[in-house]
Design goal:
With 338 residues, the chain is α/β, with parallel strands linked by helices. The protein has a single domain, classed as Alpha-Beta Barrel (TIM Barrel). It has 11 helices and 12 strands. A 12-stranded mixed β-sheet has the order 7-8-9-6-5-4-3-2-1-10-11-12. Helix 2 runs parallel beside helix 3. Bound molecules: S-adenosylmethionine and iron/sulfur cluster (SF4) (2 copies). S-adenosylmethionine binds next to strand 3, strand 5 and helix 11. The site of S-adenosylmethionine has 20 residues, from strand 3, strand 5 and helix 11.
Length: 338
Amino acid sequence: MACSMSIDDSLGRPLRDLRISVTDRCNFRCTYCMPREKFGPDHTYLAKQEILSYEEMTRVVQSLLPLGLKKVRITGGEPLLRKDIAVFVTMLRDLDAHLDIALTTNGILLGKNAKRLYESGLNRVTVSIDAVEEQVFQKITDSRNSPRDVFAGIHAAQESGLMVKVNCVVKNGVNEHQLVPIVEAFSSKGIAVRFIEYMDVGTTNDWNLESVVSGEDMRKTLTKHSGQMKRNPAVHPSDVARMWSLPNGTEVGFIESVSQPFCGDCSRARLSAHGSLYTCLFSEKGTDLRSIVRFGANEEEISKVIQNIWTKRDDRYSELRGENEADRQPVEMSFIGG
Ligand code: SAM
Ligand code: SF4
Ligand code: SF4
């Protein structure tokens, strides 16, 4: 393992976690993320040569290990659409046997990929599913797929030895009636569910506060059905989900980035598919690392550039939400990596 120090940003937060968007494409058109009106046949995706190669992304990760990086999350767009994604996992695993490597996916292609991903050194998958009722699922994802396809992917992942978590974004008037069925569907399989407040990422999803269901309201719904919930102590300060338990012991997580922001512990950087580094999910601008990498910079040089960016970081968008809103043009989630 690489010997590592730690670098802190201007608010004392270390850089521990890198999310890499390996593609800006997706096989779903979730209405809150890539609405078809904005991501239709005319949308221009990144060309192959604009996207970082696995070698280039691996070099960025390698340059971050001496700065204290502990975790990489592969995401997108839909990461399983990228060819030979397991090869990338192997390259990351070869860098560091202790690196925590996770992947976020909509699960449709997981059945085909799970075994290889596990064998390549992937530790964990987070599968996003916002409804177990087929009609609701198809409406949200704007697809003809069935939740059964996602269940099959999850089953394959568990069989292969991967740890599995489930993420569900809750949107008012769309899927709040799916809270109880989702908990019931997964608790019996020993899979932790985390409910996410709908966020104002990007510029295409017409977000408004009325569409947000707060974690507190989600807990009220669950409590009404299953009994009083209890808050569990946090295990790691940088965990984005706050864990609660139902009376029967089932643990449920809540990612309350709108109602209870957690910027104070945010140790995440993001690498977009076209190789820019973003220090916040709500950043309007990133720093182009692709040119530096393609210009032939070695790991030490890339490391210095990132160190320079990180030590100046003062992002805490979710805590400041509502102030200075006008004319913001934050980058899309499918591009920057959720
Ligand atoms: N396609 C993969 C998936 O859906 O899991 C990976 C990329 S997706 C952008 C990552 C996560 O971001 C998903 O769990 C998705 O539900 C979540 N997400 C996307 N847009 C969001 C929004 N506006 N608010 C909250 N979560 C969002
Ligand atoms: Fe695709 Fe994931 Fe965005 Fe849905 S949330 S459109 S699956 S990238
Ligand atoms: Fe981190 Fe930015 Fe989200 Fe705050 S708003 S938790 S700084 S990504």
